[in-house]
Amino acid sequence: MDFQLDKEHEMARSLFKEFAEKEVKPHAIEVDETEVFPRETVNKMAKYGFLGIPIPKEYGGQGCDVLTYVMCVEELAKVCGTTAVIVSAHTSLCMDPILTFGTEEQKKKYLPDLASGKKLGAFGLTEPGAGTDAQGVQTKAVLSEDGKEWILNGSKCFITNGKEADVYIIIAYTDVVLDKKGRKQKKFSAFIVDKGLPGFTFGTKENKMGIRGSSTYELIFQDVHVPAENLLGQRGKGFPIAMHTLDGGRIGIAAQALGLAEGALGRTVDYVKERKQFGRAIAQFQNTQFQLANLKTETDAAKLLVYKAARAKEAAAANGYKTRFSEDAAEAKLFAAETAMDVTTKCVQLFGGYGYIREYEVERMMRDAKITEIYEGTSEVQRMVISGAMLK
Amino acid sequence: MALEDYKGVYIFAQQVDNKISPIALELLGKARDLADDLDDKTVTAILPGYQVGGLVDELAAYGADRVIVIDDPELKDYRTEPYAHAIASVINEYKPEILLIGATAIGRDLGPRVSARVHTGLTADCTKLDIGDFPLIAIPGQEQKHKQLLMTRPAFGGNTIATIACPDFRPQMATVRPGVMQKKDPDRSRKAEVINYNPGFVPNNCYTEIEKIVKEVSQVADIQAAKILVSGGRGVGSPENFKLLDDLADAIGGTVSCSRAVVDAGWKPKDLQVGQTGKTVRPHVYFAIGISGAIQHVAGMEESDIIIAINKDENAPIFDVADYGVVGDLNKIVPLLTKKIREAKAAKANA
Amino acid sequence: MKVVVCVKQVPDTKGGVKFKPDGTLDRSAMLAIMNPDDKAGLEAALRLKDEYGAEVSVVTMGLPKADAVLREAFAMGADKGYLVTDRVLGGADTWATSTTLAGALRNLDYDLIITGRQAIDGDTAQVGPQISEHLHIPVISYAEDIKVNPEEGTVEVKRQFEDRYHIVKAKMPCLITCLSELNEPRYMTPGGIFDAFQKDVTVWGRKDLKDVKDEDIGKVGSPTQIAKASDKVAKGKGEQVIPDSPEEAVDYIMGKLDEKHVI
Fold it and tell me: Rounded to whole angstroms, how far apart are CA atoms B336 and B331?
């Protein structure tokens, strides 16, 4: 194992860091406060290729590896959880499945605009009655008689980049089969759905605890005619596509969680050196010192898991996903998310009263951190994935 | 180069629109002091320009013994090449031992061009000039030269200070930061020897053309650009009471800024806030008036050159960073201070 | 059109200046960055590339690790990179540095040379104008706006002074020094970074400098010499007085203002 980053990755990190500090951080409080999607920041990220990092150059991407993408999400999350998840959902949940499962035509049609950030991507699996349990999915796609279109009906909820995206990967069931025990089983398919198709509308915007600037919406499909050529992968193979996509997405979220922990910790270290109580900086108290040591150790451990998962996905992609990276992704996300929650909560405590004040931003990081334990598979789901592989 | 052929202290007498720039008078003041420590005590001003003969008396009054006037239409407005030619020609003809140039937008362009042309060292942006030995302390095996120009300047954004010498080349050249050296009280009875000198100006490829000159006066109160900040905190008490600070700022030629508490209370706009969540400032003088000095505030102003704090709480943390801390009632001290400053300025103006 | 940009790798002073236990500057503890004014110069050159297809070359003089600023320049869009590095060049003052860079630049074709106004470690603003003198080309310092007229072979520059600006026209080839206020430099792109490390940097040593004498480079060739260097002492608690009356307080403050020549 190589624990030393090469010069390229070091320089990429310095780029992401500088961009985050200069372009993202100044807006973080406002984005959280007003819940306004940071469109200008997204446009700037698009200009510099941040929205196509792990996409090959032939499809208009930057041609970088998964680790570079992960570092981008991490650095953004250090200053703004919202901005980080926008990139993560766009990259992992929309572009990655097109790149992995799309036909050459689909890749050529969609990836250049997505990778250049001209268009933004989203992913819809979750429904009011189906989160962790995919069989609860009600959204249905029926092939028209002439075989030219799929008629899509149903709704998706809690969709990141919801109303702001232009291209959506939507999971719907297309068939119902009987399993060995004679029970009805839905078979799913994945579709690339363009914004603006008649019948495709948006429901309520969610008012969230954290990542408040990310546009989280309900998607509604009423007799939406999706061209047959927009079926992604094979009919009936939508579930593995969704699972693969979430595996990748978990690495992005793990990176977001890692960044939140690092961001909160960095601010706390600065703060405790300056804040004085009983005549000395609180950094001089052993409680502070020991707490910081624990938090740093946790965070560094999370970092190793996240980077390892990125490398595992990279390796798997290179061999056409013959090797698995699901457990690596699940471990990274489980540990990074719980670390983020722990670190941000304790950072707020170390800040004392100021930690509870919005201006000092650690409370926002704590609110942002919570979602990382929930979306793209709750921590409980990650435990199921990890133990499932162990006990197979 | 025979170093001993180079004699006397020279200054570049910068004029703009046929008005002597204040820096030229400051340089004369310093040149006078330096010349007194040298064998040749002549102070010479080099005055390039067009129809600038009328400025000679002012240079004399402020300490020039001799003025070399280079009067030519090519020198009407500052352009690098003809000015560099003028100064370099004077150096070759008159061989100054020391040449001081103001570290202005003109001087910092002219100085390096001239130093490269005549092959000598140039020390930029000096804040202190002395005559002394180099090396400062004799080193066995190395000749210690006496009566050298020792040029002191900050580097690294002011984090370090270096003293530089130019022992083997002449003239010893320095650009000097405006506002640091003191000009002498003028003596209108002084007369200077005037030398009219024209090396000839033949335009070449290095001559540029000035197509337009636009004069600008800034209106916006930019607390980051201000040299003096009069900053108020919650202790000022009310928005109306900020009038005391406005008056002080007006008297001393400063700008009003404030702490976060003042912005939160709605007394002043966010643009004027100093501190971690406001702006970081680094003025020459920072008055912290009625500001307790929370770390978040201090982080934004601790780099100020001089911090003067006025606060009634003698334990206020602002006193830990203040150069000069005064414990007392700002409502009494500030108006009186304003009055005294106005009196002092009026007295100077009449002098 | 060919544009050459001179850049310097400097320690980043933004995150605070670090000192060694002995009180001297700890350069290794500070991040090395591309000097901000130089970066604005590079951006100006890249805009000429965007607009006129200019070829942008970047020259830096420094230690071998200054290679990093050339990679950064590549990742921003520069075409060629030259690293001037040699033991004998060490300890150079601005005169010797400009002589060295001029020697390197004589090997290149250029219509325009752009440098930053000054480096944040030295703050001298001398090297740009000195290079122009060595190369016998016009210099326009403190550029706030640059317009090129390729047909005429001229540049038109907004040149800043304290209370005014000039619009100055010069024939190319010429040298421009620019302020970081000139523009907002673009960021690198992630893909550009990885490509940058695949590109070749031309490394030049003493022997590659054209028309430069041995006695004019490095410490030996530097007319200025350091007599003393010291670090500014960190600010601590100053004086604190508790005057008996407002008059006394004001007298105290007036005394200090006078002592420091504030009034």
Answer: 9
| Contacts of C58 by beta carbon, 8 Å cutoff, 6+ apart | C4, C5, C6, C7, C42, C69, C70, C73, C78, C80, C81, C82
Q: What is the mean pLDDT of residues B196-212?
A: 96
What ipTM was assigned to the predicted interfaces of this complex?
0.92
> Which candidate, B125, B162, B142, places its Cα nearest to that of C227?
B162
Per DSSP, the three-state class of C237 is: coil
Establish, for the pair of chains A and C, how many residue pairs have beta carbons separated by less than 8 Å: 50
Q: Summarize pLDDT for A114-135 with one digit per residue, the tens.
A: 999 999 999 999 998 877 677 8
| Chain B neighbors of A359, CB-CB under 8 A | 277
Query: Average pLDDT, stretch C147-165?
Result: 92
Q: What is the model's pLDDT at position C16?
A: 59
| Residue B220 banded pLDDT, cuts 50, 70, 90 | very low
Chain C residues within an 8 Å CB radius of B169: 223
- Predicted confidence (pLDDT) per residue in B3-51, tens digit: 999 999 999 999 999 999 999 999 999 999 999 999 999 999 999 999 9
Which pTM was predicted? Answer: 0.84
**Neighboring chain A residues of B277 at a CB cutoff of 8 Å:** 359
Between positions 1 and 40 of A, the ones with CB within 8 A of C are 7-8, 11-12, 14-15, 18-19
Mutate to test the interface with C, among A15, A23, A47, A68 (most CBs of C within 10 A): A15
User: What's the burial of C235, exposed, middle or buried (CB within 10 Å: 0-12/13-18/19+)?
Assistant: middle
CB C143 within 8 A of CB C129: no
Best of C20, C213, C240 to substitute, by most chain B Cβ atoms within 10 angstroms, is C240
Closest CA to C75 of C206, C185, C151, C1: C185
Task: Name residue, tokens 């001081």.
Answer: B100
- Cis previous bond, B317, omega within 30: no
- Token pair listed for A223: 């007799």
A359 catalytic, yes or no? Answer: no
Name the residue facing B340 among C167, C254, C262 (closest C-beta).
C254
